[in-house]
Amino acid sequence: MKTVLASRPGAIQASLRATLGSFPQIKLSGWASGGLSALFKVREDHPDLLVIDGALSEVEVIHLLTEAKREDSQLRCIVLVDTAREAQRLLSAGADMALMRDDLSGLLLEAMREMGLVDTP
Q1: In sequence order, which residues have a C-beta less than 8 Å from that of residue 90 and are 6 or more positions away?
Q2: Measured between alpha carbons, how far is 102 from 9 in angstroms, rounded to an integer?
């Protein structure tokens, strides 16, 4: 599945790219360092999945969710968060799933299964 990652440059983005790249179902078609550049990637690549690092400002994440869903209502959006409170706010803003950053690799595949994006056992 075609995936775009929105995350600030640095160690976290590199780790997220490596984690996403470890799943054979995911084809990382691009990544962006901020909400606006991620929105351009969504418009350009037409991904199935948008993974957003919640370390971007909350306003930026909410704007990205709103505009990306407006562009493609079928686009699935997973937001990576640090707290349950943050998860609730971003789910209310349009995220399909909010996952805690501390167990991303374990949670990501399960989230993709729940959203019907992969059929692995």
Answers
A1: 54, 58, 61, 62, 65, 79, 81, 98
A2: 18
6-42 pLDDT, tens per residue? Answer: 998 888 888 888 888 888 888 999 999 999 999 999 9
Q: Which CATH superfamily is domain 2-114 in?
A: Response regulator (3.40.50.2300)
User: For 50-59, 84-93, 105-114, which range has the lowest pLDDT when averaged over its residues?
Assistant: 105-114
List CB contacts of 62: < 8 A, sequence separation 6 or more.
90, 93, 94
pTM of the model: 0.85
Segments making up each domain of the chain, as ranges:
2-114
